Amino acid sequence: MIQVVTDMGSSRIAVMAAEVLEGRQVRVLSVESKPSKGVRYGFVEQPSKVAYDIGELVRQLQNSARLPEARQLCVSLNAKTMKQVPLRVTRSLGFGRTVTAPLVDGMLEECYTKFNQPEVAVYDVIPLCYELDGTRMDDPVGRKGNELRGTYHIIVGNASIREELGRVFERTAAIKPYDYMPLGVEALSAALLDDGEREAGVALVNLGDTTTTLAVYAQGALQQLLVVPLGGRHITHDIQELGISEANAERLKRLTGVALKRLVTSPKRVNVPAVEEGTADVQVRTDFLATIIEMRLAEMMDPIFKALEQSPFPLEAGIVLAGGGAKLDGVADFMEEYTGLPVRFGDHSPRLSDGTDERYADPAYAQLVGTALLLHDYLAENPAPPKPEPPKPAKNNKRGWREKIKGVVIDLFSDDQYLKNEENKDGKRPE
To answer: pLDDT tens digits, residue range 44-77?
Structure first.
């Protein structure tokens, strides 16, 4: 089954057509993307603009992937307002009763309704563990006890995230979203982490354009979520203050920027056109450029470093970097120096099938690939009900004149035979 998934990033929209093959290998057919002024910090600010962009991208995707028609797509959610809240739900079972699946499902459903605050919506509920009469376990179904307690992490965010998405798809009549909308960090986790890392403890850091996200996984589940409203674009704006255009500042950052000043062993001067016409080129020393980048990175990462220091979970698998900002030269060294943890770059290429174009191994596509994997799993666990059979055509009771005459002859013959039989009984015909 070919799936269409979308990532509404901090300033860009991308759509992907993909197929999940046997062994959960993803075959990417095509990707279309574009910057969008309708989204900011992963939040829809202009529904009509986003609706137009999605419609245009899906039409392009149908052509490039040779799809007959794309009617549904899966949206992964990213937004700076999202945060994690712990919650416990308890059920008294009575003496020695068996825990049933409907009871556990009811506890999960209660999490969605129990957290009730104005303008706040629940976007995901993550079961961490259960305790049956004080004994910790992952799955209590089928066990007997007196009291069951579930511990959950509730992912909440501004209710307008969902409301604005609804307004977007009200304007795309031919394209509708799936009810299932996974978190962006969960999609990244599906693409970049393995079960062993999620169990041992790992920090997934996504360096986006306008946001930086920390997701701590341990004991097989998402344990901590933090979104910082600062990203790679803020570094670019700091460089822009030197008197150059945003485009040249971004190019300078990508081509000569380094995340740590100490890594610049042979400083050079780079001439960049000034933003004001008729003004001499701006000379930028690479070591000074590295100082600007390192200072902004330290500010961006400070809340994340504090969260890692206070985390009760041992991060045996270290830090995994994701997002476009992870391409910055020296960023892994920066993270290792400031945290003391081992750092690696996220790589989703092992999730791609043989024959998939190698350009889709770029980190920018990791969240889309993970979204395709999660949607595949969701549809497998929640198959669509079978379509009702079309009604059978009604029988045509109208008969032609020949059939009508034939029927009359048969009826008359039957009546005549009846009369003969009755006459043979006493020699008289019945009245």
So the answer is: 889 999 999 999 999 999 999 998 888 889 999 8
**Alpha-carbon gap, residue 328 to 371, rounded angstroms:** 25
Which residue from 296, 224, 236, 229 is spatially nearest to 261, judged by alpha carbons?
296
Helix %, strand %, coil % for the chain, to 5? 40, 30, 30
Cα torsion 234, 235, 239, 240: sign: negative
Q: Give the 3-state secondary structure of residue 33.
A: strand
Alpha carbons 129 and 12: distance in angstroms, whole number:
37
Q: At what angle do helices 47-64 and 160-170 cross, to 10 degrees?
A: 60
* CA dist., res. 412 & res. 418, Å (int): 10
Whole-angstrom Cα distance, residue 163 to residue 45?
11
Quote the tokens at residue 197.
């890392």
State pLDDT tens for residues 246-264.
999 999 999 999 999 999 9
All domains of the chain in start order, with CATH: 83-158 (3.30.1490.110), 199-346 (3.30.420.40)
Q: Where do we find the tokens 């698998």?
A: 317
